[in-house]
């Protein structure tokens, strides 16, 4: 077992040599000893076919960070591992990694009638992207729907299920069969895909259960994997693992375990994700780029040092990186405000023959904006526009908020003019967001009203665009009126709306009211609130040094299933620091949750250590 090695830069440029490494180390201020051949730390690159990724690693041993088994090529977190201080919420997730869907929703009675389940549109893998990458879709119809998004159609079976929201799905299906209607795989696959896209996972699971129990469909590995994925989303990882035992051995292959791995990552369950990955290696399953990307997503969130080890393993196993792999690396560099490193990733990606798509360009532009690099951001936005914005119209939804970030109202108007004659839902929402960023609430409201008059049915997701504007501008009265309007229109009020209401009151300084709203919501509904709904309240209590209420919110998060997150403990420690009180047993509590402090939290823990020794305390003793 070797100690897990750390990378200061995960990419190797073509023609890499030890001399190059020494030079780079000198430039980065790293000792060249860490790349000596004789230490066995620097390994010669193995080129991936078709100009794949060349990995550059400058390693030094971490202190008990974890173990990396060279023989098994596996991962195992150990005591003492440092978690990254930059933890993204699952609900907010890796928004920069999503591929924008250019689809225009079918205009009519069904307008993305999604279920609010606490997952925003910014999960690290969106519903249909998860289906795409897991290869859970099972018909040519689904593929054609994805290739021709502007001609999205809904299957009759899907319409029957969503038009009877108060009936169990099995009742809808029994009636369907009784009426003599057919249940082809194409019809089933189309219905399942549309349910997933709207995050109606409970209904999709009921459909899958009925199909398996009634033997109406001969299940293959993808069907079992789809069922596994839905169980994990609706009932949790433990139930999903139990279901695996019921899957016939002949279908218990790589697709099943990569599906479980993806859900472990979504739950930020590091230990379980590593166990599943190692099991896949032990059973000699071919490990795909998707599985490696899942590990990259996980470590991007909890322990960035391990990213280099995943890349090394990909190189060793000759697994070619995908566009999504590069997006993860770009996001990692961007989050650390390492713009130079981010540009190097892009350069390496292009050298591998992969050109940035428009969503990757949007990611880059966003980090340039955040980094204050206005000229680079503007250049990237022009690149997104292409030669003719009308012909490249689907870029508008990304351009609108990005130009607003730059404070360029004239550019927002110019881009909106391209869409103005017949805006799509996504463009309406992007424009509302843009004007909100520019503090032009009236313009945002005008566009919202036009959206309401254009579309027959809107969901809470669409209302949330304006509600977010009100929250950011501390307009409580207008926010409340909008929520009442949502309810009157028949919108389901769920976790996304709760989260914005909580933020609305927190921004206005009404923390206790925000907590009351969240508590009432959880009592009235079985839906799970978003992580951010809890943490934004807890942060306010922590700033006050209110240990009692901070601990209360910490406990409620655990009750909701949010366990083992660094940010929870960071917030809790802050409460004790501001209260100038010792936090008895805090390290033991963290260890029990398999959470290990980064440098920042470790420094803060010293201040709340009940048994801390100082020069003064020694004198007094």
UniProtKB/TrEMBL annotation:
GO molecular function, a single term: mRNA binding
Keyword Cell wall biogenesis/degradation listed: no
Any single GO CC term annotated in Swiss-Prot or TrEMBL for this entry: mitochondrion
PROSITE patterns noted in UniProt: PPR (PS51375)
Keywords per UniProt: Mitochondrion, Repeat, Transit peptide
Protein location: Mitochondrion
Region annotation (Disordered) ranges: 101-128
Positions with biased composition (Acidic residues): 111-128
Keyword Endoplasmic reticulum appears in the UniProt entry: no
Cited Pfam families: PPR, PPR_long
Boundaries of every PROP1-like PPR domain copy: 255-415
Alphabetical list of InterPro entries matching this protein: PPR_rpt, PROP1-like_PPR_dom, TPR-like_helical_dom_sf
PPR repeats: 322-356, 459-493
UniProt superkingdom: Eukaryota
Family the UniProt entry places it in: Belongs to the PPR family. P subfamily.
PANTHER family associated with the record: AGL218WP, OS12G0527900 PROTEIN
NCBIfam families reported in the protein's UniProt record: PPR
Protein name per the record: PROP1-like PPR domain-containing protein
Species whose genome carries this gene: Acer negundo
């Amino acid at each position: 077992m070797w100690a897990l090695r750390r990378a200061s830069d995960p990419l190797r440029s073509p023609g890499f040599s030890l001399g190059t490494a020494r030079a780079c180390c000198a430039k980065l201020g790293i000792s060249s000893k860490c790349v000596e051949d004789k230490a066995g730390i620097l390994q010669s690159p193995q080129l991936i076919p078709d100009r794949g990724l060349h990995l550059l690693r400058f390693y030094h041993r971490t202190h008990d960070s974890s173990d990396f088994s060279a023989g098994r090529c596996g991962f195992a977190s150990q005591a003492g591992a440092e978690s990254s201080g930059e933890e993204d919420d699952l609900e907010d997730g890796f928004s920069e990694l999503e591929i924008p869907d250019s689809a225009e929703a079918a205009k009519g009675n069904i307008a993305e009638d999604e279920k609010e389940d606490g997952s925003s549109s910014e999960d690290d893998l969106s519903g249909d992207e998860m289906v795409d990458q897991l290869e859970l879709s099972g018909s040519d119809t689904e593929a054609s729907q994805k290739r021709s998004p502007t001609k999205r159609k809904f299957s009759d079976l899907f319409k029957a299920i969503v038009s009877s929201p108060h009936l169990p799905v099995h009742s809808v299906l029994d009636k369907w069969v009784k009426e003599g209607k057919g249940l082809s795989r194409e019809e089933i696959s189309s219905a399942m895909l549309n349910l997933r896209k709207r995050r109606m996972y409970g209904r999709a699971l009921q459909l899958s259960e009925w199909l398996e129990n009634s033997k109406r469909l001969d299940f293959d590995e993808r069907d079992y994997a789809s069922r596994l994925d839905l169980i994990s989303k609706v009932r949790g990882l433990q139930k999903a693992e139990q279901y695996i035992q019921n899957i016939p051995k002949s279908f218990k292959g790589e697709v099943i375990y990569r599906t479980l791995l993806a859900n472990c990552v979504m739950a930020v369950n590091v230990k379980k994700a590593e166990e599943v990955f190692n099991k896949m290696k032990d059973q000699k399953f071919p490990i795909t780029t998707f599985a490696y990307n899942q590990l990259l997503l996980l470590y991007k969130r909890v322990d960035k040092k391990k990213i280099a080890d995943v890349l090394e393993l990909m190189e060793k196993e000759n697994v070619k990186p995908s566009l999504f792999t590069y997006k993860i690396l770009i996001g990692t560099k961007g989050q650390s405000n390492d713009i130079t490193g981010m540009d190097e990733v892009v350069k390496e990606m292009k050298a591998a023959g992969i050109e940035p798509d428009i969503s990757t360009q949007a990611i880059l532009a966003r980090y340039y904006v955040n980094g204050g690099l206005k000229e680079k951001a503007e250049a990237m936005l022009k690149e997104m526009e292409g030669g003719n914005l009308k012909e490249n119209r689907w870029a508008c939804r990304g351009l609108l908020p990005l130009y607003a970030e730059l404070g360029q109202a004239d550019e927002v108007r110019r881009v909106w003019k391209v869409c103005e004659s017949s805006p799509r839902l996504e463009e309406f929402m992007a424009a509302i967001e843009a004007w909100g960023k520019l503090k032009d609430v009236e313009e945002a409201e005008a566009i919202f009203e036009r959206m309401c008059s254009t579309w027959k049915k809107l969901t809470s997701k669409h209302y949330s665009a304006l509600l977010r504007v009100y929250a950011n501008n501390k307009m409580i009265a207008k926010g409340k009126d909008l929520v009442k309007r949502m309810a009157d229109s028949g919108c389901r009020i769920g976790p996304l709306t709760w989260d914005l209401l909580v933020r609305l009151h927190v921004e206005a300084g009404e923390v206790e009211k925000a907590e009351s709203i969240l508590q009432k919501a959880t009592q009235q509904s079985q839906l799970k609130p978003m992580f951010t709904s809890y943490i934004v309240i807890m942060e306010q209590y922590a700033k006050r040094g209110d240990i009692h209420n901070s601990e209360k919110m910490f406990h409620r998060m655990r009750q909701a299933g949010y366990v083992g997150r660094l940010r929870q403990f960071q917030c809790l420690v802050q409460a004790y620091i501001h209260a100038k009180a010792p936090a008895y047993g805090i390290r033991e509590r963290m260890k029990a949750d398999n959470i290990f402090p980064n440098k920042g939290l470790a420094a803060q823990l010293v201040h709340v250590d009940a048994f801390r020794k100082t020069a003064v305390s020694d004198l007094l003793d």
